[in-house]
Amino acid sequence: MTANIERLGIQESVEAIFPPSELAGYLSDLPVEVTVVDEAGIADCDAVVTRNYFDALLEIDWIHSTQAGVDRFPLEALADAGVALTNSTGIHGRTVGENVAGYLLAFARRLHDQIASATERRWERPAWDEAFTLPGTTACVVGTGTLGRGIADVVGPLGVRVTGVRRSDDPVPGFDEIDATDALHEAIADATFVVAAVPLTEDTRELFGAAEFETMRSDAYFVNVARGAIADESALIDALESGAIRGAALDVFETEPLPRESPLWTMDEVIVTPHAAAYTRDYHRDVGDIVRRNVERLEAGGELTNRVV
Fold it and tell me: Considering the entire predicted model, what is its pTM?
């Protein structure tokens, strides 16, 4: 892509993550006009930073997604239209890693139970054999990209043995052991925590279903910080209700917001968070740094970094 960017729009949909004006202000020193735009204003831009997809984006030169996942964008249509798409991969490792560490610590130290008791003013300690410490446990992280490596970097120092699953079984720094995807069942069979951290593709859609939950230990926890469709939610609920697995920490769901009637809300050993594992007060700066780097690359006649299409 060698397009000359003159007007960069910050689409209002980023409001779900941070105020659009914060990113616009952070990028105000760029040698291009930076402005907040609604859906109608997209057509007046050469490039747009956005969380959501709009058909008008097919008419511009470059889209930057505030998320790492690009499953909400029509990649083939963008390619046919000659629209470049970049994403925010690389910025979420630490935030998501800390969130996963929080889930693991909550389950181990029974913090979720104690917080629930406190909201009802109940002084209730864990049973003598409920709480445990993390050393001696294993977390199998399915997906060893930015998210997976961030998780390994945070939970490994807590004494957790970290194994990984990826396309090949080549070693990955930060992981004690790596298995290839075709050995998924063997990899998750003896883990205390199974963590989904893969991008959503046709190959990973419902990667975790009834067979996978049945393969896991009955005292294991399933953690999903990837995409809701990575897991068959009905099969997960069945596994939780039947005792096939002990619990789950879920930041993503098949339908978001999670419907009020979902049984996941009221299960004792389930932690529900509102797709917020990547949130941080520095989010707009992290995204802005990628956008800034790419504007500078284009000004110099270079290629976009983090390019997907």
Answer: 0.96
